[in-house]
Amino acid sequence: MRETEAIRSYFRQPGFERFLKLLARQYMASKEGVRGYVTLTTISDIERETLDNFYRTYSPPVPGETKRYSLKKFEKLLKDNRFELTIPKLLELLNGEPVLTRREQAIRINLEWTSIIQSVIEEVCVTGGETDNGIFSWVQGLIDDSSPGSRTLRIVFAKSPEEAHRCLKLCIVALKSSVAAQGSKPIRLPVLAVEITGDAHALDWKTPLGRLFWWGLTAIQELSFAPMLEDSQLESADLTPANNSQAILIREGYRRGGVSDDDLSSQVMLYAPELFGVREERILTLRQVEQLTAERFGQRCFTRIHMVENPSVFAELMDADAQKREETNSDIPPVIICGNGQPATAVIKLLDVLLSCREGIMLYYAGDLDPAGLSIARGLQLRYPDAFRAWRMDTTQYLRYFHKGIPLSETDWSRLAESQYDWDSALAEAINDKRVKLHQELWITELLQDLKRF
User: Fold this and answer.
1) Looking at per-residue confidence, does 261 or 51 come out higher?
2) Which of 63, 139, 258, 396 allows an S-S link to 182, with CB 3.0 to 4.6 Å?
3) How crowded is the C-beta side of 382, counted as CA atoms within 13 Å?
4) Is the Cβ–Cβ distance between 227 and 156 less than 8 Å?
5) In this structure, are 323 and 427 located in the same domain?
6) What is the number of structural domains in the chain?
7) Do 138 and 182 belong to one domain?
8) What is the pLDDT of residues 12-70, one digit of tens each?
9) Do the beta carbons of residue 436 and residue 408 sit within 8 Å?
């Protein structure tokens, strides 16, 4: 004890303070232990004197000097003294706990990671038998990061190993419950969540537990898209479909695993007199959309689908067509869909059905000339490359109305600066030049005229 206090007293001299901080930092950043030199810029007189005494040398004072001290010699002098110290032992004595190299830290972290997963396996009795339906294999794969979902759990673990333990344990309990319910009526996600945790939202995709549960659910069902999504690093995504393909795949993962997600709040506004026999809007939930089939509409005559971003424009188009039908019944009524901003899954599923009725059906999309509207258009073009047509979303339209535009924010401008739109290569440049965005309500008269001509 006296020796320890003597060591601490000696190396806690003011002249050692900066040297030892830099030494510890270099040691922790190294893989196998520190090598090279510690460099002190603008060395003070007390630092020079203290280190000269330790290194058994003398250097004359030079104002503002930068000096380098060999760590190989520092460790040799440590070992040659009566305490026979090493650099890691000295740092441990001074800090009150071991100071680890980067390699040692990684080893310790991996040991703790493995220990957490193995302890959870024991606590929830996942044995690898025939009744666990692949849960054991998935959990075991988390140890070496070969199972999808390991990145999600790693993020939790980096913040709190205790929370990672809790998260994995609840996830496995939820997986076991979902497996036990298979073959009967699908269990709804909030019902399962409240049964396991008391919180109906605990298994929502936006939570780490919810994402981990989804990865496990899809892995034990051996769904091929789970690794693809993992590689795309979608742990931070949610079910609001900024990327519609992702949202649809996520929902498919739940359903094929026997878990029902929310199929009521996702809705689509539709005006389709030819399809439903009424000249008024229909609000379809995702559940209703999924009951529709291409065969049901296969004999209809429509060749175009008109889709708009904003409800106000949808209402104007719908009202104008309804009035037109009162005057004449000779024309085929249009199919008009409102995306209401970023299209919900119900919107995309409805488009999938309608566009698959037969070949040659075109999708005309009209949205705001701003980053959000253009992003929606580009997403639709990627999903329906043969059918998509940009409707009044070109440079000519923009330049006709830019003087009525709203200034772009820096965020909007940055998004547009990195964008390109295949249907009009000059559009992004024009918007970046004028730096204003336009709402499609500005050219509602032209949209109405277009609809009459179709």
Assistant:
1) 51
2) 258
3) 11
4) no
5) yes
6) 3
7) yes
8) 999 999 999 999 999 888 887 778 899 999 999 999 999 999 999 999 999 899 999 99
9) yes
- Asked if residue 320 and residue 224 are part of one domain, the reply reads no
pTM, two decimals, is 0.67
CA-based nearest residue to 436, from 390, 391, 403, 396: 403
- The residue range of the domain holding 33 is 2-99
pLDDT in tens, 273-320: 888 888 889 999 998 998 888 777 767 778 999 999 999 999 999 998
The one-letter code for the residue type at 323 is: Q
